Amino acid sequence: MKVSTLGPKGTFSHETSLLLGADEILFKRSIWEVFNAVEKSECEGGVVPVENSLVGGVSQTLDSLIEFNLKINKEYLLPIHHNLACWGELEDIEVLYSHNLTLSQCEKFVRNYLPKVEIHETSSNAISAIELSNRKDKRYAALVSEFAAEIYKLKILKKDVQDEKLNFTRFFVIGNQSTLPTGKDRTSIVVSPSVNRPGVLYSVIKPFYDAGIDLTKIESRPSKKKMGEYIFFIDFKGHAKDKKISLTLKELSSIFSVKILGSYPRAY
Amino acid sequence: MKVSTLGPKGTFSHETSLLLGADEILFKRSIWEVFNAVEKSECEGGVVPVENSLVGGVSQTLDSLIEFNLKINKEYLLPIHHNLACWGELEDIEVLYSHNLTLSQCEKFVRNYLPKVEIHETSSNAISAIELSNRKDKRYAALVSEFAAEIYKLKILKKDVQDEKLNFTRFFVIGNQSTLPTGKDRTSIVVSPSVNRPGVLYSVIKPFYDAGIDLTKIESRPSKKKMGEYIFFIDFKGHAKDKKISLTLKELSSIFSVKILGSYPRAY
Question: Is the pLDDT of residue A217 over 80?
């Protein structure tokens, strides 16, 4: 399968694309460009991160799910491990390259082991690896994945340096087509209440509760229209074609603006 | 008032601290260090960003609100404007310094006006300004606030380049003491359900609905324990000492783990 994903080589998105069996990969500069490539049929699918178990939702992906008319076809959970790569020992390190989300996931490690280090934030873990591979000097270090360390031939000094050992990133594969029910599916929708009265969230989730539909996630995001106004990304078990679910979505759509982002096989 | 906030000079946090009347400022490297300075009484208060109207919650602040036993004393809405600073014209620009959240707020502008530019992500808008001030060369540009441009003597070529004109960041002032009711307050709590059964969010918000309490925000965050398990940051109108609210919080606490993060005068 030919997919587009976030580049450069060595990102978690690249690793996930390979694990999902991609045999040709278009590397893009932003998540918006990944969606755009799928919409323009430059590739069959796009692989994008949607949330991390420590940090929460990836806002560019959530925004693009609203902007584009594509469907989620698959979800995948990638276990995340960060590692300290450098050319010397801990006490030699003066500069640390890290993506800012990676840094926040390794904050205690950096505070305890590298309190005086100068931090250079990068735009991705792969870029951190590239920066270090360009500076073969023991004063430099980077927080990288094993996958990136392998690609850029880096030396890992300390493995698994993130503060919480349980760390996953959930990825979506997006495409132009809907997927059929498998019997063990999940559906993602976004609900835009367009009113900001008290109790709106209650009215959004009550129909699911009444129908006995198992909500697996609800994430509120700013509506971008007014401070204190939110839209809701909701995941639940089942396929949009299941009778109970299609009735509930119909009921919800009569009150609120509802967009179905896709039904796809559950990974957890 | 002596406060700690996110440095270096020129951050939105710095600007907010001055607008709130701070006359002495301790600049810290991370939000965790701002909380720590307040807890250790190095200063009277800490000024931290909590959410942006376009991007959503600031995870380091939400994490620190859980970790530390401090109280929210005040909220403040700072209007956010991003500007393109450079030494020459648009067509001269080859490298753009930007914080990654700023970049995502100016994505359409950059896509349309600077499609081929090389992006160097920085750890803050103030650092973007410092990087540009260190390179007085028309090939370089940065996305910065007017405040940072003034401090670092930069030239603004294009004002207000963010994609959505309505853009606010909400800040909290945190301290060691609780604040008294003013009659126009808001309260923030975090609820950790510790069970992951269907309908848990429904049970969390139903008591508020039943008591007629006006929820102004609900934000789900990963519990960090298990994929698909969430905790909820909830804001509502009123003070924790109000009778209706104290009864509702008591009811909620009998079912879930609830932490009151503070009651404080409403800014909107």
Answer: yes
Q: Does B115 touch chain A (CB under 8 A)?
A: no
CB–CB contact B202 A206 (8 Å) = yes
Distance from CA of A62 to the nearest CA of B (A): 10
Asked whether B28 and B4 are in contact (CB, 8 A), the reply is yes
**Helix orientation angle between A200-211 and A243-253, rounded to the nearest 10 degrees:** 160
pLDDT digits 0-9 by tens, B74-99: 999 999 999 999 999 999 999 999 98
The least confident of A234-243, B75-84, B101-110, B178-187 is B101-110
Tens digit of each residue's pLDDT (9 = 90 or more) over B192-240: 987 766 678 888 988 998 999 988 888 878 777 776 678 889 999 999 9
- Tell me which chain B residues have a C-beta less than 8 angstroms from the C-beta of A164: 224
Contact between A201 and B224 using a beta-carbon 8 Å cutoff: no
Report helix, strand or coil for A219.
strand
- In CATH terms, are B83-158 and B185-265 the same topology? no
Phi, psi of A37 (to 5 degrees): -65, -35
Determine the residue of chain A that is closest to B233 in CA distance: A220
A83 touches chain B (CB under 8 A): no
CB contact at 8 A, A122 and B120? no
Task: Give the distance from residue B155's alpha carbon to the nearest chain A alpha carbon, in angstroms.
Answer: 24
Superfamily grouping for domain A185-265: ACT domain (3.30.70.260)
Residue among B145, B169, B136 nearest B54 (CA) = B169
**Chain-wide mean pLDDT for chain B?**
92
Mean pLDDT of chain A: 92
Domain edges within chain B: 2-80+167-175, 83-158, 185-265
Distance from CA of A165 to the nearest CA of B (A): 10
In which element (H, E) is residue A249 found? helix A243-253
Give this complex's ipTM.
0.71
**Cis preceding linkage at A8, omega within 30:** yes
Q: What's the topology of domain B2-80+167-175? A: D-Maltodextrin-Binding Protein; domain 2 (3.40.190)
* pLDDT for the residue A235: 93
Is the domain B83-158 a CATH 3.40.190.10 member? Answer: yes
